[in-house]
């Protein structure tokens, strides 16, 4: 996963545990695509100060994920849900070939729909 995307995801999960300034700096840098110099000029601090604050915040986000693992757990849940969707599709295909139970068809459609709601 690209660092920018990974930081954005970690920020979504753990951003509220950072200081407001840390969240702001990460948001400016990763979401708004501002340079360190632009952030420094807007905030009235040095470029090095911005860089240090961003690096500290990134380290905190990675530490939180290392300890809590919410992003990894969500990835595993999504992987399992994709497998559930595949199984529901296989059941539905079998059902169509061997008797067409409307209840089975409706249930597999519902399973797929519920799984997709979580994934997206």
Q: Tell me which CATH architecture of the largest domain applies here.
A: Orthogonal Bundle
Number of strands: 0
Which secondary-structure class do the elements indicate? mainly alpha
Radius of gyration: 22 Å
Q: Helical element count? A: 6
| Share in β-strands | under 5%
CATH class category label of the largest domain:
Mainly Alpha
The largest sheet is: none
* Average pLDDT number: 93
> Order of helices and strands, N to C?
HHHHHH
Helix amount, in percent? Answer: over 70%
Separation of termini?
18 Å
Overall form: elongated
Q: Enumerate the spans where pLDDT stays under 50 for 5 or more consecutive residues.
A: none
What is CATH's topology name of the largest domain? Arc Repressor Mutant, subunit A
CATH superfamily of the largest domain: Winged helix-like DNA-binding domain superfamily/Winged helix DNA-binding domain
Quickly count the domains.
2
């Amino acid at each position: 996963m690209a660092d920018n995307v990974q930081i954005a995801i970690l920020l979504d999960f753990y951003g509220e545990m950072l200081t407001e300034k840390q969240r702001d700096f990460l948001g400016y840098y990763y979401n708004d695509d501002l340079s360190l110099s632009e952030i420094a000029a807007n905030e009235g601090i040095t470029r090095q100060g911005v860089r240090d604050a961003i690096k500290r915040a990134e380290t905190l986000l990675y530490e939180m994920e290392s300890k809590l693992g919410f992003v990894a757990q969500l990835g595993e849940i999504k992987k399992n849900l994709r497998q559930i969707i595949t199984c529901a599709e296989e059941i539905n295909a079998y059902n169509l070939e061997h008797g067409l139970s409307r209840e089975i068809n409706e249930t597999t459609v519902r399973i797929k729909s519920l799984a997709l709601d979580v994934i997206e």
